[in-house]
Amino acid sequence: MEPELSVLDSLRKAVEAMPDDVPLRIHLATLLLSAGQRDEGIRHLGAVLQRDPGNAQALRLLQGPALPGNRLADQGLADRADGPGQARAPGREGQPGAGREGQPGAGREGQYDWSQAEDELRDVLPAMFVGGDDASDAGIEEADAFDAEHAGLTLSDVAGMAEVKERLEAAFLAPMRNPELRRLYGKSLRGGLLLYGPPGCGKTFIARAVAGELGAKFIAVSFADIIDMFVGQSERNIHELFEIARRNAPCVLFLDEVDAIGQKRSQLRHTPMRSAVNQLLLELDDVAGNNEGIFLLAATNHPWDVDSALRRPGRFDRTLLVLPPDAAAREGVFRYHLRERPVAGIDLAKLARLTDGYSGADIAYICETAAERALMDSVRRGEPRMIGNGDLEAAIAEVKPSLGAWFDTARNVALFANEGGSYDDLAAYLRKRRLL
User: Fold this and answer.
1) Residues above pLDDT 70, as percent of the chain
2) Of 17, 220, 317, 336, which one has the fewest beta carbons inside 10 Å?
3) Phi and psi of 207, rounded to 5°?
């Protein structure tokens, strides 16, 4: 029995009021197809696939095989059949897609003319599911969404930062390298390590070095790689990320800007973002239960904005403060950024003393500014010259440290929000620098 017109009208109004409600659209499309209103039904299925490209129910309805109560398949095709069991594929008479069985475009029961569907839906949604030689290129290749790569460096490539390396060794690397001792002492590898500290101080570089130290592949993702404007897609991205990490084990999975991905749910008014945080928690629990070969690292400039559930035991329960580079590290950063530039008479020790309190990113900008200064001088002279210590010292006088605002916030956290001693190491550093 066909649905009454009043029921369809009511559902149309409901869809207009809630256009992102996928189950509601599928229900309306099913009734429209059952009532023979095929064009409108296909438009609604197209809208569903725009919001959820992999929706199996919508794809089944578009393919046309008989579904319970689907008169489009049960009767609509039979009305245009040339004989028993010889139904024409949906299409207009005399046009492609309306051939007999055994001819191009024809199909037996359960088959469908995809080229005809592409023509009809061209203006409704991209051809992500249409068959043909280019089908794999037309859609999004999920396995390529996140690349697992070799790190290409180890902790020996990280200059200075002896305290950071020592903490990494104790909390993360030594138990992983010595499984027998780990079992003897009952040391658990559940959970992950959260690197936090001011921006531009090498957290991502250290995470990559940890992957190289373990001989594992490295996957780095940030907020922009995961969060999507379409409802449900962010959760799907997070799940796919962890699946790729499992397939590439041993693997270091590095979540950059984790305060953006895993914001405090109490501060989130936007439901899709809350769902993304929930999905991240579920995936972390799955890895904690079966974390063979998967090592979790995350970085943030604002650990106080990370949802507390992410920092519970079994998740990111270990933290490591990554501070501005020390003197040895600053020398290493200068050496790295000057290695392919024409330099002469560079006193790295003096440059390191002059840049106390600068971040690694600040030092990279100093090298860029010095190179620009030498380039412009060469243009004026009409002949190239080397970059000298004077260029770098002039650049240091011009470029100021960028970490003041971060330390202002960190001081307030250490004074008024250090519940349970979570930021004792930060408070100790601020006292040492006479910032607290």
Assistant:
1) 76
2) 17
3) -60, -40
Both tokens assigned to 128: 């992500």
Please give the tally of structural domains in the chain.
3
105's CB contacts (< 8 A; 6+ apart) are: 89, 91, 96, 97, 98, 99, 113, 115, 116
Residue 212 sits in the same domain as residue 265:
yes
User: Across-strand partners of 295?
Assistant: 252
Tens-digit pLDDT profile for residues 59-79:
788 776 434 444 433 443 334
| Residue at which a domain ends, from 303, 321, 339 | 321
Q: Are residues 313 and 333 in the same domain?
A: no
* Bridge partners (DSSP) listed for residue 296: 253
What are the angstrom distances between the C-alpha of 319 and each of 31, 262, 315, 337, 424? 55, 16, 11, 29, 11
Q: pLDDT for 320-355, tens place per residue?
A: 999 999 999 999 999 999 999 999 999 999 999 999
Distance (Å, rounded) from C-alpha 325 to C-alpha 300?
17
CB-CB contact of 307 with 264 (8 Å): yes
Q: What pLDDT, in 10s, does the model give residues 120-179?
A: 555 554 444 334 444 334 333 444 467 778 777 888 888 888 888 888 887 778 887 888
User: Per the domain annotation, does 282 fall within a domain?
Assistant: yes
Distance CA 411, CA 431 (A): 10
List Cβ neighbours of 283 (8 Å cut-off, separation of 6 or more). 238, 239, 241, 242
Helix axes 327-338, 360-381, angle to 10 degrees: 40
Assign 230 to helix, strand or coil.
Answer: coil
Q: Which of 86, 103, 132 is the last residue of a domain?
A: 132
In a domain, 410, yes or no: no
pLDDT digit string, tens, across residues 44-59: 887 887 777 778 888 7
> Which run of H or of E encompasses 331?
helix 327-338
Task: Classify strands 193-196 and 294-300 as parallel, antiparallel or unpaired.
Answer: parallel
Task: Evaluate whether residue 313 is within a structural domain.
Answer: yes
Average predicted confidence (pLDDT) for the chain: 78
What is the domain extent for residue 16? 5-132
Q: What's the CA gap between 359 and 353, in Å, rounded?
A: 13
Q: Can you read off the two tokens belonging to residue 410? A: 């960190």
Q: 42 is written with which tokens?
A: 């296909």
Task: Please name the residues in contact with 158: beta carbons below 8 A apart, sequence gap of 6 or more.
Answer: 164, 165, 202, 205, 206, 209, 329, 332
pLDDT tens string 236-258: 998 888 888 888 888 889 999 88
* CA distance linking residue 257 with residue 131, whole number of Å: 39
**Dihedral sign, CA of 56, 61, 64, 67?**
positive
